[in-house]
Amino acid sequence: MAKGRNPLESVELTLSVNVQTAWYLDRLIEKGLYGNSRADAAAVLIYDHCKLLIAQGELERAPPIPAKAANIIAP
To answer: Higher confidence at residue 27 or residue 2?
Structure first.
């Protein structure tokens, strides 16, 4: 199933990990549920972990972005 267009603007992030973490990302990619690259897998993991922390009350939910401003996010 193809993913729909994300209504939020993407922000580029550079991330360095150790070789063991890269190995884990590769295993997740092989499972087919975490994208086709290490960057995709890392993005899914970060997003999923944020959702978990929100559910546990450790992180507050981001404020909603109005539909008109979805593509105009201040730095």
So the answer is: 27
